[in-house]
Amino acid sequence: MLRKLTISAIKYRWKDYLILFSGLIISSAIFYLFETLATNNVYLHANGQLVSIIGYIFSFGAVLLMLITFIYINYANSFLLSMRQHDYGLFMILGARRKKIGQMIWLETVFVGIVSTVLGIIVGIGLSALMQSFVLKLFSVTAKHYAPFWGKAVIWTLFMYLGLFLLAAFFNTFVMTRKSVLKLLHSSQEISRHRIVWWKQIIQVLCGLGLLGTGYWFIMHPLVLKQQTIPTGLFTLSFGTFFLFNAVITAGVAFLRKTKNAKKGLRTFTLGQLEFRIHDYTKILTGVAMLFALALGAITTGIGFNNIIEKTATAGSAYTLGLVGPTAQQKKLVTALRPQKQVTYLFKSDQQNVYFIKQQFEQEKFEIPVTKKSTFTSVYRGQKVAELQKDPTDLMTAMGAKFATRHPHFISERAFAKKEGSTSSLFLFRTEGLTSKQAVLDKLVKSEAAKTTEMSASSQAAFRGSYDAFKVVKPLYSGLQFMGIFLGIAFLAMLASCLMFKLLSGAFADKRRYELLRKLGVRPQLLRNAIKKEVGLLFLLPALVGVVHVLFGLNLFKGLLGNPYYGIWIPFTFFAALYFGYYVGLVLLYQKIVLSEEN
Amino acid sequence: MKAKTIIKVERLRKVYGKQTEKKYEALKAISFEVAQGEFVGIMGASGSGKTTLLNMLATFDHPTSGTVKINDTEVSRLKGNQLADFRAKEIGFIFQDFNLLENLTAAENIGLALSLQNVKPKTIENSVVKIAATLGISDLLEKYPSELSGGQKQRVACARALVHDPTILFGDEPTGALDSKSARELLELMYRVNEQQKTSILMVTHDAFSASFCKRIIFIKDGQVEHELVKQVQASRTQFYQEILDILGTFEK
């Protein structure tokens, strides 16, 4: 009989269970995703040669994710409890023994845990395979030694989630079997409103600001704590954020409610909702703020690695490619690349020497890159012929392996005309944004290689220029780039599921409130706006804190990226667009649930 | 002089059940009128259709056919903003289970309807204080619903329904969730509001005691008007109560 009741209860509340399961599945899938990187020693080792602290970062990332998972499961569990309390009360009235109820609760919690964890791992394997191909396609980055199905990750995810659910099951059994029947029956009518004493609030504000300040200071001065900077930063910023939300924002909302402006339209209602919720939300908002910072930070650094590949390349040579005797087809391809600079030098050659016309180099100086150390950006400087004669390496390598070992001579036009042999030309060009132009550049390299195979066997990798350097550097960084983008997206997904879970778990309670407001004569548009505002604040608050965290946090990557703030508007815009899109989606979903019976 | 008609119900029908399902006719072409300043009770047993009727009068539900006019406005034609504004301006509603917003104070609950009409905060405050004084809840204004008793909650709800001076106050078993003392207090309050403020009230109830505070009672059975009873001017409430019980007695036979 009890089993029948349980099953019918699940059928009746399948929507709630759907939210519960989808939330838990996403969470465990993402945990799995993270673990496929974190526990893959071969992969980490292969990509960690450049950056010794990578493994270190990962272990602390894992700890943080566990913390967030813990909060997440805590929420999921209280959601499950609140869903079932009424039913359990009913069972007790029907004469079920407490021991029996305890067993049921225990079994149900563990069952939910096992199903969602196993499904989560399956989804996780699919997701990581999808991510791999996605990152490959979008950034043409391959990660060697990365495997979507990774045994250790499976074991860790199972261990972590089942462990937590077992804990939750014991907790639930303990709580439920100690509550009175009436309390269980009327649990949904209870509401809690916390009031913090003012001096406690002030202490929290001071703690929060103090912790944040300390965290930021250590991040700005990473040499003080060296390796300890990251764990210290994570610790201080997490708790600082928590205190900040707990004290400052609640006080802010309470203050806003008292102002005259708050009395207009539905603002009183929205602020009232927020004041009641924010306590419930502080933990999840902290988690979301930290996830926001991690996701944005990871994506920014990932794309930063992309910049560094190009920067390293452009620091190697002033020209992207050198073409000897370019064909019309090649010229056409070059035009398509929209080069910033192109120059052609005529030359004649014999077995040991290459002859250039001096005047040409005086009119169009041959350039070399000058790289600024602090920002790791390069400017280009034209060389005098005398300098070029002293060190012609850049010029000669640009001509390719066939000519690289010959001696350059810069002679007058008249002397050049007298030299024997046919006149050939060296065409040099420079273009920016190599990553996006790889396809065309590869074509050029191929066609140039085809020209020279019959002349020299060793000319395969001979086409010197920054694109060559690009090709050499890219594989070194692509593992890190993959890691950054991969983690960024994983954290973003975790953030998304956290927000969705928390919002939707409140949506059903809200349905009644909005229904009532409609009966009181609130315009549908006003109701929709109120939802937009309420959800918007829950998105905006952690985003603001998260952005500040990232701006400070990026400082840690100075050693790795040179100038980690270079071009951050690109990842920031990308991220903002994703985040905003998600906000719009959630608002629509929320409106659909809450305002479903609109007439 | 005859008072102005504020509610006019004509041949109102409501049929439940979709095309494929078995149809159930909850209301069978009901017609009646309510004049300004009346206190009308609608009585009937469970399933008689009284709540269905009230939902349609209060614009919460659409009739299958027939019309409801409040203040000469055909309410079933209203949609969207018009409907919302109509509810906010013309109608006050007291629910059986109070339906206060638990995250707002009593004062905020009462003032909500006015703030939606973009009334100035100062004016809202004055109106709230005034209605609270009338209903004797001035000392409860800063409290949250969770801190109030059932009777207090219903009085706050009553204040919320009256603060915007509606054309008609609807009550859906307003005493249903109250103890007898609170119920009597609320009914006396409604009676006073009707007498002194000349507010028109239409209340649904199945309880003869509650109904005895009304001035006219429409009895509904199986979706039709079965009987109508008007309180004589000289009759006391107890006498009227007895009359109601007599009618209910004949119903059962």
Number of helices of chain B: 8
Q: Average pLDDT of chain B, to the nearest integer?
A: 88
Main sheet: strand order of chain A: 1-7-2-3-6
The helix count of chain A comes to 22
The order of strands across the largest sheet of chain B is 6-7-8-3-9-10
Oligomer: heterodimer
How is the main sheet of chain B built?
Answer: 6 strands, mixed
Structural class of chain B: alpha/beta
Name the biggest interface. A-B, 27 and 32 residues
Largest sheet of chain A: 5 strands, mixed
CATH topology heading of chain B: Rossmann fold
CATH class of chain B: Alpha Beta
CATH superfamily of chain B: P-loop containing nucleotide triphosphate hydrolases
Radius of gyration of chain B: 18 Å
Number of domains of chain B: 1
Ends apart, CA distance between termini of chain B: 39 Å
- Assess the beta-strand content of chain A as a share of residues: 5-15%
CATH architectural group of chain B: 3-Layer(aba) Sandwich
